[in-house]
Amino acid sequence: MDAERIRRDVEAAFGELMRAAKPQAGALLVLGCSTSEIVGKQIGSASSEEAATAVLDALLPLCEANGIALAVQGCEHINRALCTDRATAARLGLCEVAVEPWLHAGGACVTEAKRRIEDAVMVEDVRALATLGMDIGDTLIGMHLRPVAVPVHTDCRRVGAANLVLAYARPKYIGGPRARYAGAAPQ
Known about the structure:
By secondary structure, the protein is of the alpha+beta class. 30% of the residues lie in helices and 20% in strands.
């Protein structure tokens, strides 16, 4: 495992996501991360604390510098609960849950996030609030993204050996044939 390469991959992916999404300060980024996939193993089979450290070494300072709130998703063994800071949970009205992630129930990345995020709490759901998504290793973060999720196609396709999918959310287009949409291309 090359920790420096993982950090560079995550930094590059974050940059691509910011350029595509152009988020406002206070936007919420959901991170789903399989460290097993990063190190070339099957999801859930080889959690890597070193890979989790490398991912968060890159992502935490970038989120802070850009005013982006971070929510790190755990695995299905904790019902995909997320770790964020208490202030973000309060600002967004998130429901705190009683679960303590660990390496084999939640995964390495959410466990490391719980350790490193100041005043960290676990929350149940951020559906309809998350506007940015970074899915490292096919962890299925879509349940937490606000509709409508727009995939970001970039040259950044992997972190380590793991597939990388980036997305941002835009408001739904509503109305009929006479409706106009702010920010949409003319039809």
